[in-house]
Amino acid sequence: MKNVLIGAVVVSAFFLAGVAQADADLAKNSGCLNCHNVDTKLVGPALKDVAAKYADQADASAYLAEKILKGSNGVWGPIPMPPNANVSPENAKVLADFILTLK
């Protein structure tokens, strides 16, 4: 029984790592990483800084998904983030959730 439990944990870890990689690929393919980096500021803030800023906000995922879709101005400085017309609302939610997992 113990071996079955350990196997389930290992399989779950591989599955979650695959999901995280898929979300990182979505961020890259959606153009997010043209202006953002996970760890350091580029044109926009580091994604880890975004995650930290909104970590305790109850509606953070919905808020960030809306910013991804509609753009943002003045939240992180003078450079605006343009709207992402090529990102679907579903993918914006996936991206927001991915960003919020970064520590």
UniProtKB/TrEMBL annotation:
Q: Which GO terms describe its molecular function?
A: electron transfer activity; heme binding; iron ion binding
Q: What is this protein called?
A: Cytochrome C-551
> What residues does the Cytochrome c domain cover?
2-103
Please tell me the species this chain comes from.
Answer: Nitrosomonas supralitoralis
Question: Which keywords are on file for this protein?
Answer: Electron transport, Heme, Iron, Metal-binding, Signal, Transport
Q: InterPro entries recorded for this chain?
A: Cyt_c-like_dom, Cyt_c-like_dom_sf, Cyt_c_ID
Keyword Electron transport applies: yes
Q: What modifications does the entry list under PTM / processing?
A: Binds 1 heme c group covalently per subunit.
Q: Which residues form the signal peptide?
A: 1-22
Instruction: Give binding positions for heme c.
Output: 32, 36, 81
